[in-house]
Amino acid sequence: MKIHFYKYQGTGNDFILLDNRLNQYQDLTTAQIAFLCNRKFGIGADGLMLMNPSPGLDFEMLYYNADGNQSTMCGNGGRCMVQFAYDLQMHQYTYQFKAVDGIHQAEIDNNQHIKLKMNDVMEVTKHNGHYVLNTGSPHLVLFAHHVADIDVYETGKEIRNSKSFEAEGINVNFVETVDDDMIFVRTYERGVEDETLSCGTGVVACALLNAHNDKGFNRVEVKTLGGLLSVEFSKQSETTYNNIWLCGPAKFVFSGEMEIS
Predict the structure, then answer these.
(1) Cα separation values, 4 from 13, 16, 105, 160, 245, Å
(2) What single-letter DSSP state applies at residue 119?
(3) pLDDT one-digit tens code per residue, 46-57
(4) Is position 206 annotated as part of the catalytic site?
(5) How far is CA 158 from CA 79, 130, 151, 185, in A?
(6) Same fold across 2-110+250-259 and 125-248
(7) Residue tagged active-site, from 74, 80, 206, 247
């Protein structure tokens, strides 16, 4: 089977994108997707996404982790899909697409950054003193000093595979306050089972918990290993947030063809 693929990245979070609007790739297996994402033998990526047709919407985004399994919402992936749509000549100011967690809106701003609207967050809980919330994917947020020095792989892996989370898995975020306007976030991602250079839903989770205003509009700048993102949102209470937008760049890297069996 020959596939025509496109490689995109959003602040270093990289993805294989396939235009599946004619349904030619719907029979890809878990093993084939894992092979394509393998950085030694395949194309290499943190995940793979199909752009599927979706009646009444611009497209459907179907996301798979690097392990080949279908997964939950991916924020950076969603931004890359919108840029992909634009590059496929869907030239418009606003987009609406379906993802596993529902309908999302997006737009391209004057800086050619993609702004993606995320689902409202209605619950924040505590686990061993750390915060747990779902921003389209489940996240644990751990506040720390000197995040640059943390062994994110070992510490994140231990938490992700602990008895409390081993069944469903969880993404583990380490966040540090840089100054009044910026935080620094590093994330261990389930499904990739490693640290990624950036995690969109993780950045959102950390930003919500670093609101400057107890009520109303907030904007938090976020530094990741792969670059800068920002999150705009309204805080309604200590555990509820709405009108959440993940903002940042999404870039085409390369495209090509590959035979898989």
Answers:
(1) 20, 10, 27, 34, 31
(2) P
(3) 999 999 999 999
(4) no
(5) 30, 15, 11, 18
(6) yes
(7) 74
